[in-house]
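Hi Y.,

Following your request, here is the sequence exactly as I used it, all 197 residues.
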Amino acid sequence: MSRYADFDEYEELLKKRLSKKRFTHSMNVAEECFKLAEKYGADKRRCYLAGMLHDIMKEDLPERQRQYTVESGLSPDPVELSTKSLWHGVAGAYYVREVLKIEDREIISAIRYHTIGSARMSLMEKIVYLGDMISAERDYKGVDKMREYCYKDINLAMSVALIYQIECVCSKCGGLPLSTFEAYNYYLKFNKNKEKL
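Below is the corresponding structure, written out as tokens. Let me know if you'd prefer a different format.
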């Protein structure tokens, strides 16, 4: 059962909507978001819930993901619209708002930007973005160092995370949304020593 008894219905919904692997990831992200919220003084319950729900559309039908992205009213940019792997963030925000009737704008925004980032993110948005990167099952090269950054300085961690993510996307010749560039430029000022993984 989830950390919060009143979130058990969301946990059951995730079990139905996601593979076992994706469900485990979602609950790990929720736990990481709780810990980061504790560290940085954010609302632990809300961050936990945003972490739980961040991938709620990840394994839905691609056509539905795209439809929700287009209909979301959340201004997806052309790269998001043309990149299948990015649809679930916008579609998830739409699902949480329209289907689950969660009206918390910060939770909706944290889900919307958890993959691509944006400049001047709220504390919760940063927590969900980073919680997704360092959840317990993550094992990419440099993840332990990334975890250290996340618990040392959240803005420096954002810069390091964005550099890593952009390098990964570029290595696959993928497209980058404008908000990712804006996030990179914004958080660079917190990375005075040009640190990266």
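Residues 25 and 127 are 15 Å apart (CA to CA).

Thanks again,
Q.
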